[in-house]
Specification:
Strands 5, 6, 7, 13, 14, 15, 16, 17 and 18 form a nine-stranded mixed sheet that branches. Strands 1, 2, 9, 10, 11, 12, 19 and 20 form an eight-stranded mixed sheet that branches. Strands 3-8-4 form a three-stranded antiparallel sheet. It has a domain of about 210 residues: FAD/NAD(P)-binding domain, CATH 3.50.50.60. The longest helix has 22 residues. Strand 19 and strand 20 form a beta hairpin. It has ten helices and 20 strands. The protein is of the alpha+beta class and about 400 residues long.
Length: about 400
């Protein structure tokens, strides 16, 4: 006779950022009556990637046609605006400019026009004299305008998802140990000694997702390498009307130092991208030796460093020198001075890196026995959170049906 296991919930979601909460929301919407619990180690939702970014609703123009990022960002942007309007969450559809300041950027700008159209995004091409119609203080050789880009309060979105999901959410619950048994389910021990038993576990742990995957016994074959994005606030916000971006380097998943007028009227400048010395290393003083060792012992970190040392060196220089950062900003906004830049809170990007040093450039979701792992969901994951949540929910409910 087999003893029946008493489960505390059907689905246990680890991570109370916008992706984890969107997943809980999608599960309870798709399968009413499903018991969902969310464990979040912080005292509230959206304390890391969700709450420490530029607040941009991305259009989807940058991403490879057919990729999850492209499909989910385009769909997610429209859904997010509708969600914000329905629940009275602060947002604005402002549009943005992507500006070429050097001649060698012009072919990449034209390629973005084509990519945007392939992704179903309306794009307007601008000559140098037309840039001033939108941004009088911005200078460039050419630009494109993407009307569907906007800004919103992502923390407010996360809170609303938590409220509307009907899930049981436990804050201050850090995962210490996971026991997965394919015939019995998953038991999670938190650091306060509580055990939560579930039929299926969903890993939306963001900066710690690879470590959580390994705790379940799955080998994700990627490691999270944290990159800190450092921001400034513009002391003269009247210099910028909306959102202004440089033409990105297609070899990297970072968009470069850009100008973002947020929902509160302030203008953020950044981010640059430098290696963080901890998963939650929001400044150079924060060092966690065990987490740093995980990065340094991963072969992909060294392969990546050898391939991209020149790019990384430039990012480090801008991190350590305000003058260098100002110089980068002046390519777009010549009127800015070092005195205009006021330090602002940094964010950390959870970038998945393969063993060969390849930076994973799409959302990455993997499945194991009774587990679903979201292993690469940096920007534009907040924009795409509603479609990502539905996709993870679909896989989770499929796994639940076979238990």
């Amino acid at each position: 006779m087999v003893r029946e296991i008493a489960h505390d919930c059907d689905v246990l979601v680890i991570g109370g950022g916008i992706v984890g909460l969107s997943t809980a929301y999608a599960i309870t919407r798709s399968a009413p009556g499903t018991r969902v619990t969310v464990l979040e180690k912080e005292p509230g939702p959206a304390r890391h990637q969700t709450g420490r970014n530029s607040g941009v609703i991305h259009s989807g123009i940058y991403y490879r046609p057919g990729s999850l990022k492209a499909r989910f960002a385009v769909r997610g942007a429209a859904e997010l605006v509708k969600f914000c309007a329905e629940y009275d969450i602060a947002h604005a559809v402002t549009g943005k400019l992507i500006v070429a300041t050097e001649r060698d950027e012009l072919p990449r700008l034209h390629a973005l026009v084509q990519r945007g159209r392939e992704n179903g995004i309306a794009v307007r091409e601008l000559g140098a004299s037309q840039i001033g119609e939108y941004e009088p203080e911005v200078r460039g050789l050419a630009a494109i305008r993407v009307a569907t880009t906007g800004v919103c309060d992502f923390v407010g979105v996360a809170r609303q998802l938590a409220d509307a999901s009907g899930a049981r959410i436990r804050y201050g619950a850090k995962v210490a140990y996971i026991d997965r048994r394919p015939d019995r389910g998953v038991a999670v021990l938190t650091d306060d000694g509580t055990v939560v038993r579930a039929r299926v576990l969903v890993n939306c742990a963001g900066l710690h997702c690879d470590a959580v995957a390994r705790l379940t016994g799955d080998d994700p074959e990627v490691r999270i390498v944290p990159f800190r994005g450092e921001y400034y606030t513009l002391a003269r916000p009247d210099l910028v009307n909306g959102l202004v971006y440089p033409v990105p380097d297609p070899a990297f998943p970072f968009l470069g130092v850009h100008l973002t007028r947020g929902i509160d009227g302030s203008v953020h400048i950044g981010p640059n991208a430098v290696p963080a010395l901890a998963r939650e290393g929001y400044d150079w003083r924060t060092v966690r030796p065990r987490e740093l060792a995980t990065t340094l012992t991963w072969p992909g970190s060294w392969h990546m460093a050898r391939s991209h040392w020149r790019y990384g060196g430039g990012e480090l220089r801008r991190s350590l020198s305000k003058a260098a950062f100002t110089q980068a900003v002046r390519r777009l906004l010549p009127a800015v001075t070092p005195d205009d830049l006021v330090p602002a809170p940094a964010g950390v990007r959870a970038q998945a890196v393969l063993r060969d040093g390849t930076l994973v450039d799409d959302f990455l979701i993997q499945e194991g026995p009774r587990t679903v792992h979201v292993l690469n969901a940096p920007s534009p994951a907040a924009t795409a959170s509603l479609p990502i949540g539905r996709e993870v929910a679909r896989r989770t409910l499929k796994a639940l049906a076979t238990t």
